[in-house]
Design a protein that fits this description.
By secondary structure, this protein is α/β, with parallel strands linked by helices. The protein folds into two domains: 199 residues, 2-enoyl-CoA Hydratase, Chain A, domain 1, CATH 3.90.226; 47 residues, Lyase 2-enoyl-coa Hydratase, Chain  A, domain 2 (Orthogonal Bundle). It contains eleven helices and nine strands. It is globular, with a radius of gyration of 19 Å. The relative contact order is 0.11.
C-alpha cells in the first residue's frame, strides 16, 4: 500500500495522504513521496488541477513525532537530522506554490502543526464542517515556527500569533472567516464540492492560470509600485498568447472559446 496514492480523473490529479494509522503525519517517507509527485507534476501538461486530501479520519496531524524522537539518537542529539527534516519540508511546501497547476486542499478531521501549514500553503482549501485547525506545537514545548511562515501569510498577524502561542484549535467556520480556507461544506458534500471547484478551474485556459499563479506569488511580497510594474509586463505577455486572442474574440462574439491548449 502506497503511503501517497495518486489517481487522475481527466485533467485533475488526486493525491491522497495514505497513512491513516498515523493521521497522515509528514514522516520522512511522506515528505519524499509528496516531493516526488510535485516534481513529476511540474512538467505534466496533461494535469490542470491537483487535489490533496487525507485518508482515514484526519487530513494531516503534522510531523511524525515518534520518528523525530528517533532522530535524537544521533551523536549531535539530532540537530543535523532536524535541520534536514525542516529543510526538506520547506522545499516540499515551496514546490506546491511553484507548480503551474492550482492545488486544492480537501480537508477533514484535523489539520494541525505542519498539517495546518500544508493547508495554508495550498492555493485553495475546502473543509468539511467539524474540521479543526491548529498550530499546537507550543503545547509540547515546540513552537510551530515553520508552520508560522505559511499561516502568517494567510491570516492577520494577531490571529496567527494567538493560534501559535495558545495552541488552541479553531473551527472550520472560523478558519474561513480568517481566510485560512475558502469554504466550509457539509462533510457528505466535501468530495463533491471540491471536485466542482476543480472542474471550474480545469475549464480555464491552462496557460493563463499558469501565468497567473506564478505572478500571484511573485507580486505578493513586492512593494505596490514594483508589483504593478511586474504584473503589467506579465499581462502584456499573456496578451501575446494565441489562445488569449481566441478567448477575447469568443467573449465579444458571445460564444464558448475554442482553446487549442
Amino acid at each position: 500500500m502506497a503511503i501517497l496514492e495518486r489517481s487522475d480523473t481527466g485533467a485533475v490529479a488526486h493525491l491522497t495522504l495514505n497513512a491513516p494509522e498515523r493521521l497522515n503525519a509528514l514522516s520522512d517517507e511522506m515528505l519524499a513521496a509528496l516531493q516526488d509527485q510535485f516534481d513529476a507534476l511540474q512538467n505534466d501538461e496533461s494535469i490542470r488541477v491537483v487535489i490533496l486530501s487525507g485518508a482515514g479520519k484526519a487530513f494531516c496531524a503534522g510531523h511524525d513525532l515518534k520518528q523525530m524522537t528517533q532522530g535524537r539518537q544521533a551523536e549531535d542529539g539530532g540537530k543535523a537530522y532536524f535541520q534536514d527534516l525542516f529543510d526538506r519540508c520547506a522545499r516540499m511546501m515551496l514546490s506546491i506554490q511553484s507548480l503551474p497547476q492550482p492545488v486544492i486542499a480537501r480537508v477533514h478531521g484535523i489539520a494541525t502543526a505542519a498539517g495546518c501549514q500544508l493547508v495554508a500553503t495550498c492555493d485553495l482549501a475546502v473543509a468539511a464542517e467539524g474540521t479543526r485547525f491548529g498550530v499546537n506545537g507550543v503545547n509540547i514545548g515546540l513552537f510551530c515556527s515553520t508552520p508560522m511562515v505559511a499561516l502568517s501569510r494567510n491570516i492577520t498577524r494577531k490571529q496567527a500569533f494567538e493560534m501559535l502561542t495558545t495552541g488552541e484549535f479553531i473551527s472550520a467556520e472560523r478558519a474561513a472567516e480568517l481566510g485560512l480556507i475558502n469554504r466550509v461544506v457539509p462533510e457528505l458534500l466535501l468530495e463533491h464540492e471540491t471536485e466542482a471547484l476543480a472542474k471550474q478551474l480545469e475549464g480555464k485556459l491552462g496557460a493563463a492560470v499558469k501565468i497567473g499563479k506564478r505572478a500571484f506569488y511573485e507580486q505578493i511580497h513586492m512593494p505596490v509600485d514594483q508589483a504593478y510594474a511586474h504584473t503589467a509586463e506579465v499581462m502584456a505577455q499573456n496578451m501575446m498568447h494565441r489562445d488569449t486572442e481566441e478567448g477575447i474574440s469568443a467573449f465579444i462574439e458571445k460564444r464558448p472559446p475554442n482553446w487549442r491548449q
